[in-house]
Structures are given as C-alpha cells and as structure tokens.
Amino acid sequence: MQLYLDHAATTPVRREVLEAMWPYLTGEFGNPSSHHEMGRTASVAVADARATVARWLDCRPAEVVFTSGGTEGDNLALLGIARAMPRGRHVVISAIEHPAVSESADFLARHHGFEVSRVGVDSAGLVDPEEFARALRPETTIASVMLANNEMGAVQPLRELATRASERGIPFHTDAVQAAGWLDIAVSSLGVDALTMSGHKLGAPKGIGAVFLRSGLPIEPLIHGGGQERARRSGTENVAGIVGLATAIELAESDRLDRVERVTRTRDAFIDRVLATVPGAILTGPRTERLAGSASFCFPRTSGEAVLLRLEERGVTCSSGSACAAGSDDPSPVLLAMGIAPEVAQTAVRFTFGGEATDSQLEDVAGALAVAVAAVSSLA
Ligand code: PLP
User: For 363-373, what is each residue's pLDDT tens digit?
Assistant: First the structure.
C-alpha cells in the first residue's frame, strides 16, 4: 500500500495546472510590466487568472492580490489592515488560528501596541458567535477567524461570525487556506472583507496564493517596491504560479460538490471504522461540521509520532498534527484550546484525503492503524 493522506500539508501539482503554467515558464516568459509583446502576453495571462480567481471568490478582479502563499496572505490581511487604520489597537482572533494569523496578531501586540483577544472554542473546536460578539469592542481594528481548521477540520459558522463583526463596522478576515476547493469561498455568501487562500493546498505549486481585500479597505503593504498588484504587493508577478492557481481553482470548483459528497461518505466510513476497531480512539473536531477530507484522532497512551512511523512503514503517509508544528514536541495549541489534556493532545494523528482514496484502501489504513496503536500502546 502506498497512500498519501496528508493533503492538508500539501497536494501534488495537477497535470492540467502544470500544463497551463508551462508556456509562462518557457516561451512566454515575459515580465508583465514590460511594454513589449512578451510583456503584454504575460500581463494578459495575469489579468485572465485574476478574473478567474475573482469569479470563484465572487468579487471584483481588482480586489484580488496575488501573494507568495497563505502565510503572506494572512500577514498582509492582518498587518496590512491593522497598520493602515489602527483605530483602537485591538484585534480579535480565535484560539485555533494557524500561526500565520496568530503570530501576526502577536506581532501587532509586540510592535504596534495592539491588544489581542483570543476567542475560545468548544470541545468540538467551534467558535460560538455570541462569545465572538462579546469579544468585539468599539475600538476593535480587525477580527479574523479561519473558515476551516488545518488540524482537525472544524468548519466555523463563518457567516454568523462575519455578520457580528460587520454589524459593528469591524473588518473581518478569514483564512480559507484549507477551505478552498472544498467549501464555497464566495465572499458574498461568507460576508467577509478579506480572505486568504494558498495554491499548494489545491493542486497548484507551493509559493503562490491570493488574498481578497474588499475595495475601499485601507491597506499598508508589507512589501515595498515597484508597485505591482496596485501597490498592495510589490514584486514581479509569479506569472506561471498565478496561472497555475487560477487553473487549480477552476478545476477544484468544477467537480467540488460531487467530490465533497463522495469524500464525505468515504471519510465517515473511515471514522466509523477507526472508532469501532481502535480501542480508545477519540475523534477530534466536530462530527459533521468538518472538512470533507479530514479525519483526526487522538489515541490515548500512545505517541502520535510513533503511530505515524509505524503507518509510514506500511506505506501510509499522514501527519501527527499540522505540518508547521511537526517536529515540535509541544502539544498542539489547537487541541489544548478544545480542552484536550496535553498528554492526550500529544497522541494526535491526522488523515487528510484528496479525492482518490477508496473505501477499501481506507479499510486497510484503519486495520494498519489498529495494529500500530496496539504495538505502540504495548510499549508505553
Ligand atoms: N493557513 C492555514 C490554515 C494553513 O493550513 C496553512 C498551511 O498549512 C497556511 C495558512 C499557510 O499557507 P502557506 O503554506 O501557503 O504559507
């Protein structure tokens, strides 16, 4: 068995994406700022890609800023908005944000005198809109809650959260890095003012992403230079990456609903099997309000890393939490925020599927998992 179940960490570049990118890496390698034919070809490719991304975000093309990925996008949204209009120097985020958001908020606290409020989550990892609303203050500059969590897949009641912020005139950002390609990311239905996405989570290469920034929202750029991206993000555009991102979104959206239905069924069967066959297994995150391709567990009295290694020996590639925290011995702050004890949080294992894992492959994974957990528990 060779099975890659770590799509939340990254995904392979899709063939169609690479093919769409190829011309802009070879014959049509112009710089979009150049005033000659090759430059114009590159500039048209970027404009077309921007229009495609805008179509799926349901926003205007001018509201899309291409970045180097999710981390830069989150930084640009938080730091860019907060520094352009410091208002009362207060930021509200959830307790389970990716470090790209939480560390940006902490940076604002360290260097710009902001106060950061972290809204807690329930045991399933969900933010309560009323609790979120209570954290908002007249002086809140920006609020940010992720659409879907990278460690345990919880999907937040985003529309309700965004409404609470907009009722108070507070700009609301969401990190949709894990959600893009799986959930509706139309900013009109989500009701958000800023949204981040990243190419490598949906079949485009690493190092490309996009941020939606509602027009009229003041932005202080992070990167200064030649004024590309309407001066919101200077630097020669990653033309091939931008074309790749647009192609990947187009492809992911074209079969999204069918894929989500199919993957959800497969995932639910996998979760049921794991809970039934692995003694002591605990599902982390909500049972239903979760990303289609996400199943995450804790196996008390084991070690997540040890289980992972045994699965890898059997050809199953998964993760012991978020890729960013991998290698760290600290229990995940996300799982701690959900009230999971540190010694249990250390045992987390995350399986994230694309669309290709079959029921029978996942039955085998559940079997391998039961063996791995039994072997590791007997050593404990
Ligand atoms: N936000 C979330 C929720 C993520 O899962 C990730 C990547 O794991 C990021 C942001 C960072 O994105 P990138 O790897 O493109 O910098």
Answer: 999 999 999 99
